[in-house]
From TrEMBL:
Annotated protein name in UniProt: Uncharacterized protein
Native source organism of the sequence: Ajellomyces capsulatus (strain G186AR / H82 / ATCC MYA-2454 / RMSCC 2432) (Darling's disease fungus)
Amino acid sequence: MPKPHTEYFLELGIQIHAPSSIPIKVQINDGDEMVTKEKSRPLCRISYKKATGNQGLSEGTSGFKNFYICISNDKGLVVGVVVSAQLPATSYLRISIVEKVVGSPLLF
């Protein structure tokens, strides 16, 4: 389970460059749809949804977009959440786990 404030780098549409203890293959839809891909390890999945309006991190950086990210287990319980992340023009998504919530409903 990722610890709060652990940072990851997501290469758009390819994979998360994370420690080998949490390998994951994902695809992000650069639209308003949520995309979910199972982790290579069971009992956990990660979901992405593009944030709307001014939600999430403060805007003002050209080429950045906001996303909501949730990590949930097989029972649908949230085991980790990123309230927002920025997608720069380099097509890398820098993700910071800013809060850990167990047993909460999905945020989106």
